[in-house]
Write a structure and sequence with these properties.
Blueprint (H helix, E strand, L loop, with lengths): L2 H6 L1 H10 L20 H18 L12 H8 L3 H19 L9 H17 L13 H12 L12 E3 L4 H6 L7 E3 L2 E6 L8 H17 L12 E6 L4 E6 L9 H12 L10
Parallel strand pairs: 3-4
Antiparallel strand pairs: 1-2, 2-3, 4-5
Helix pairs in contact: 2-10, 3-6, 3-7, 4-5, 4-6, 5-6, 6-7, 9-10
């Protein structure tokens, strides 16, 4: 399973909701970039690539490492070596374009297409049909991604100490199907959301709490010597804005071990309600 599977399962939701403290959910923010795409999952992945390479271009973090899309070439190549090699060349071309990004506020059409191309391959890795690797060019989709990029408040991502792309949590991540959050910024675990809503959903809070609990129990890889995670937050891409929450306002910190073990049990398909029975 994974953190996503845990928070989407009835058993996982019921367990986490027993430990999430009552909190006031903030109001939705004004929408700066209305959704037009018919494939929100692809837009979400494409924006993630644009943001990560944009942050690296501004020297706010290290360049992205292994890309999810790069696994697509390997997976496809096992059954179709010719197509696998073609995808590998396509991925390298897209990455080379994105490695050339600078601190311009405008994402070029070519770079936007590169992000969308990689996002299609992400879908293959996550189980989409092989026929979705090369959809027709969609100008509305390209334009929407460029608008999302243009409203990013880059200065708000500038770290005092450390910004990490795709932070993981040592043994905790290994036990939960390779759990990886979106960003780590100076002691805060951040989720990046490109959905139609500009509020913070309860599923997002469950997800952030899972990552924060794992980080408190097992640390954040590549962040040795950093203070423990004290905050979680959401970057709401369609509003170009953040929402932050103190972790101890969301859970009783005395329950960290109980919550972490419950997450592992749900991940293993065991109902935490039967723990110890």
């Amino acid at each position: 399973m994974s953190v996503t599977s845990v928070i989407q399962s009835p058993m996982g939701r019921e367990f986490l909701d027993r430990y999430i403290l009552p909190f006031e959910r903030p109001a939705e923010l004004p929408v700066l970039v209305p959704p037009t795409t018919t494939n929100p999952g692809r837009m979400d992945a494409a924006f993630d690539y644009a943001l990560r390479f944009g942050l690296a271009a501004r020297k706010l973090c290290a360049p992205p490492g292994q890309l999810t899309a790069e696994s697509a070439a390997f997976l496809v190549g096992r059954t179709d070596p010719i197509l696998g090699r073609d995808l590998a060349r396509r991925i390298q071309h897209a990455r080379s374009l994105l490695d050339l990004l600078d601190d311009d506020l405008v994402l070029s059409e070519q770079a936007a297409e590169a992000c969308l191309s990689l996002a299609c391959l992400d879908g293959v890795v996550r189980g989409s049909s092989i026929h979705e690797i090369d959809p027709p060019r969609d100008q509305m989709e390209i334009d929407e991604l460029r608008r999302l990029y243009q409203v990013i408040p880059w200065e708000s991502f500038e770290p005092t100490d450390l910004l990490l792309l795709g932070p993981t949590f040592g043994l905790g991540s290994e036990m939960i199907g390779g759990a990886e959050a979106d960003l780590y910024l100076d002691g805060t675990i951040l989720a990046v959301k490109v959905g139609r809503k500009t509020g913070v959903t309860r599923d997002t809070m469950r997800q952030l709490i899972c990552y924060a609990v794992l980080s408190r129990r097992y640390g954040v890889d590549r962040a040795a010597g950093m203070p423990p995670v004290e905050y979680v937050g959401v970057y709401i891409a369609r509003a170009g804005a953040f929402r932050y929450f103190e972790l101890d306002s969301l859970i009783d910190m005395a329950n960290l071990k109980v919550i972490e073990r419950g997450i592992r049990l749900v991940n293993d398909g065991v109902d935490p309600a039967t723990w110890g029975s």
